UniProtKB/TrEMBL annotation:
TM helices/strands, residue ranges: 96-116, 128-147, 184-205
Comp. bias intervals (Basic and acidic residues): 233-248, 280-293
Keywords of the record: Membrane, Transmembrane, Transmembrane helix
Region described as Disordered: 227-293
Name of the protein described by the UniProt record: Uncharacterized protein
Keyword Membrane: yes
């Protein structure tokens, strides 16, 4: 491998998809989803861990003993043998066997896109990021539907057959009978989120040749630009104060002597009212008898 090609692989738009590919593959080996349960029968919380492949870990045996009281059973993957014995009344979840296919496929696609020529890399990154959002969004919707299906298909012959149907959330807390549960990401789930975030960052740099060596400078420049966009309270107040001081036009008092001939105006008589003193025009006009006034 030549040095120029190695330098190209250090570009953020190529390196980040490679790291995402590794995360997609590693997520297969650790739990993707985790459920923590508490009940009066147990002092310590019970944890059930689910993998992308048909496998359940943690305290799944103890939790299965609790679930049987309300008629809630682990799903049956149908086309694969899980590490537990599915109940005959469990719901079928055949798509569970596709988990490894999706994870490995996303890892392979990320690696291939990182090696694309520069003229095709931008479009490939955009398609990869959009595809990852669509695929994992669809997987989340399917899992949530299966949880709804399992919570509303309780065994009527269970000891606590009076429990109403419920829907465990994909992420969040819930309660059923005297059992409280919280569902959240496992280590593999965090890896998936991190991989998708890395793909999104790669899309941002899809037209840039910046490498991992340039990352500190990029972060520093971004911090400076962000800080400069935030107005400082003291300087902002001063700027507004100066605007108020200089934005008001001063009042200039002027006297228009051209209208008064330089003489003061007699303000004792309001303008527009008649006066008893004769005006110049009155003195020049002859009286009716012909005598001047």
């Amino acid at each position: 491998m030549t040095r120029s090609r190695l330098t190209r692989l250090l570009e953020l738009r190529r390196l980040l998809p490679l790291v995402a590919a590794v995360l997609f593959v590693l997520a297969l080996r650790v739990p993707v989803w985790r459920i923590t349960l508490t009940a009066p029968q147990y002092v310590d919380a019970l944890v059930v861990e689910l993998y992308a492949r048909p496998e359940i870990g943690g305290d799944w045996q103890e939790v299965r003993g609790l679930n049987k009281y309300v008629g809630f059973y682990y799903p049956d993957p149908v086309y694969a043998e899980p590490n537990y014995e599915p109940h005959e009344k469990a719901i079928d979840v055949p798509e569970w066997v596709l988990g490894p296919v999706v994870f490995l496929g996303m890892g392979a696609a990320s690696a291939v896109v990182s090696l694309l020529p520069s003229r095709r890399l931008s479009r490939g990154l955009s398609a990869l990021f959009a595809g990852s959002i669509a695929i994992f969004g669809a997987m989340g919707a399917i899992i949530q539907y299966r949880l709804y299906q399992a919570g509303h298909s309780l065994d009527p012959d269970a000891p606590l057959n009076g429990v109403e149907g419920f829907t465990p959330p994909l992420l969040g807390s819930y309660e059923v009978a005297n059992i409280s549960g919280t569902a959240w990401f496992g280590p593999g789930g965090y890896m998936l989120v991190g991989a998708v975030v890395l793909l999104g960052i790669a899309v941002v740099f899809r037209n840039s040749t910046a490498t991992i060596v340039d990352l500190p400078a990029l972060v520093r420049d971004g911090w400076v630009r962000g800080r400069n966009r935030i107005p400082r309270r003291g300087s902002d107040d001063g700027r507004h104060e100066r605007t108020r001081d200089h934005g008001t036009d001063p009042v200039v008092e002027t006297t228009d002597e051209s209208t008064t001939g330089g003489e003061p105006i007699d303000e004792s008589t309001p303008a527009g009212e008649p006066t008893d003193e004769p005006t110049v025009s009155d003195r020049s006009r002859p009286s009716p008898e012909g005598d001047p006034r």
